[in-house]
Amino acid sequence: EGIEVECSIRIPDTGGIKDMDWCMLLANGADNAIKACRDVEKGRKYLKLEGKKKGNFYLITMENSCREDMEETPEDGTGLSNIRAAAKKYGGRVENQVSSGRYRLKVLLVDSQQEKGI
Fold it and tell me: How does residue 71 score in pLDDT terms, banded at 50, 70 and 90?
């Protein structure tokens, strides 16, 4: 698709967040980003994925190019609804915003098993 990808994330080997939920979060987020990039001219297509862990919190940030004329965040489709459900499952939250041809999705997860030392 000609998308420049920058990725900096490490999925923990242990913890309370299930592998299937990690896959669902990342796959749905990446799929939405790729679809948005299809509407962007060649040379301006990008996807940045970053994951940070602090204590029992995980913050996943996905940023991608989108149409310059896109002024509002898109309505939730199946992918974003699934992402919101997973965040809720882990006591987290989802924020998304669009500005000047850039879409950003932030997903916060709380690993409650790590908090308890399990």
Answer: confident
Q: What phi-psi label fits residue 55: left (phi over 0), alpha (psi between -120 and 50 degrees) or beta?
A: left
Please give the DSSP secondary-structure letter assigned to residue 87: H
Helix (H) or strand (E) holding 41: none
What confidence score (pLDDT) does residue 114 get? Answer: 54
HSE-up (13 A, CA, CB side) for residue 24: 16
- How far is residue 115's CA from residue 92's CA, in Å, rounded to a whole number? 14
How many helices (H) and strands (E) are present in the chain, helices listed first? 3, 5
Tokens of 51: 């994951």
